[in-house]
Design brief:
By secondary structure, the protein is of the alpha+beta class. The chain folds into 2 domains: 272 residues, no CATH class; 130 residues, Conserved hypothetical protein from pyrococcus furiosus pfu- 392566-001, domain 2, CATH 3.30.1760. It is 30% helix and 22% strand. A hairpin with a 4-residue loop joins strand 16 and strand 17.
Length: 434
């Protein structure tokens, strides 16, 4: 089962940390160009090592990191710890404040075949290669991925609640989320965390590209090290763990944007839908996401001047030829990628992960704006999936289509960094951890 270790985090020095809000940044795959321009203006913002600039970004980040260490911009904590991370947030249309509780630790970078960490999404090769290059140069994890464990007893939450009552940092991030970080140094309590996770399998919720980067880096280092023991820093990855049984786990939909299709014709396209879909015009385009909510195999189509609800005819489902188990074939997203994107739009499933004609957008309002402004030919609006769906797909050994889930809120970068360089990774003998 999954092996975790406490970490000796690198964090901003005490003076800089007084303004931690100007040092944090969104993850590399969600930061907008507008946000980047602002964040790059601060010389010590975490974006300089998470989403580096330059012709050779990884080398630029490496030089920046070395400079920060030399100048004492970031310092390594003297004791290893489990870092507790709470995110307080609200969702549109609801007054309730949620609190997603979790903790950050090192986890062994298991290969997928070891079946200890389970993936639920496909990945895009270029993004993985970028993360490998950055990890090789930095030998440091600059942001945690998000993993899910299941504990119906909520054994760890009492210790997390205690730690978060005396926070290291508290700030409001770009999402309007209140992020709070605490730490546990008590060796007895840390061992409780280690022992509980040791009996669990972990579902990777977010960060598939970064995790695959860690797997690839580990394999490369193992091959180059004749004295490999399994204890080296390159064997480990930085992860944020949350409990699937909490009621604050939210998975938001990711919509598809279609652009650049040759000879695109709305009328001809809708004619193709008639074979397999029930089609209903929608008068108010800005309500289409609500209209499809809770309806199986239902999608919204946004065009420049029209909106349409389409729903797969039940008898059409058996036409699907993709060789997946029923738990994967029956997903709304699989239906969308097969019947709409492959069969109707003509983009084969084997090409969809790298197609420049398919983009992803988590914002319904952005999708609507893009089609109105003719920045996109079509937006396909879909629904959120449940954690039960995610668990079932993971158990099947298969994956969902790329960008299937958006676990909200995203973690932020900049609270802490985790080195896997040997002289910085190995915990001191007095800590009680190997």
């Amino acid at each position: 089962m999954a092996e975790i270790k406490p970490i000796q985090a690198w964090r901003y020095n005490a003076k800089l940390a007084q303004s931690i809000d100007v040092l944090t940044s969104p993850l590399f795959d969600v930061v907008s160009d507008k946000q980047r321009k602002v964040l790059y203006q601060h010389p010590y913002n975490s974006i300089h090592i998470s989403v580096p600039l330059g012709d050779n970004p990884a080398e630029e980040a490496s030089q920046k990191l070395a400079e920060w260490k030399e100048k004492g911009v970031i310092l390594q904590d003297r004791l290893p710890g489990i870092y507790v991370y709470y995110q307080y947030f609200k969702l549109a249309g609801s007054p309730k404040e949620f609190c997603r509780k979790g903790f950050i630790a090192h986890v062994r970078a298991y290969d997928w075949s070891e079946n200890e960490i389970l993936r639920h999404e496909s990945t895009m090769p270029k993004a993985v290669n970028d993360r490998i290059a950055l990890l090789e140069k930095l030998q440091m994890h600059v942001s945690p991925t998000h993993g899910l464990y299941t504990d119906e007893t909520f054994e760890l939450e009492q210790y997390m609640d205690e730690a978060i009552s005396n926070p290291l940092y508290e700030t409001e991030d770009y999402q309007g989320v209140r992020d709070v970080l605490g730490v546990i140094h008590d060796a007895r309590v840390i061992k409780l965390f280690i022992n509980l996770i040791a009996s669990k399998k972990i579902i990777l919720a977010d960060g598939h590209h970064r995790y695959e980067g860690s797997i690839a880096y580990r394999k490369k280092q193992m091959a180059a090290n004749p004295n490999h023991t399994g204890k080296e820093g390159y064997n480990f990855h930085l992860m944020y763990f949350t409990n699937t049984e909490a009621d604050d786990l939210r998975i938001l939909p990711t919509h598809r944007i279609i652009k650049g299709l040759p000879e695109f014709n709305e009328e001809e396209l809708l004619e193709k839908f008639k074979e397999d879909f029930i089609i209903k015009p929608v008068e108010d385009a800005d309500t289409i996401n609500e209209i499809i909510m809770g309806k199986k195999w239902a999608f919204g189509l946004l065009f420049k001047d029209n909106a349409v609800k389409v729903r797969l005819k039940p008898e059409a489902f058996d036409k699907m030829t993709w060789p997946f188990p029923d738990v994967v074939k029956g997903l709304d997203l699989t239906v969308m990628h097969y019947f709409i994107i492959e069969k109707i739009l003509g983009i084969p499933g084997s090409e969809q992960t790298r197609s420049d004609k398919v983009e992803f957008d988590r914002s319904f309002s952005d999708c609507l704006a893009k089609v109105i402004k003719s920045e996109a030919q079509l937006a396909i609006i879909t629904q959120e999936i449940s954690i039960e769906n995610v668990k079932a797909v993971c158990a099947s050994g298969y994956t969902m289509p790329q960008k299937s889930t958006y676990f909200y809120p995203k973690v932020i970068c900049g609270f802490l960094f985790s080195s896997i360089k040997e002289d910085e990774f190995q915990t001191p003998p007095y800590s009680g951890f190997e």
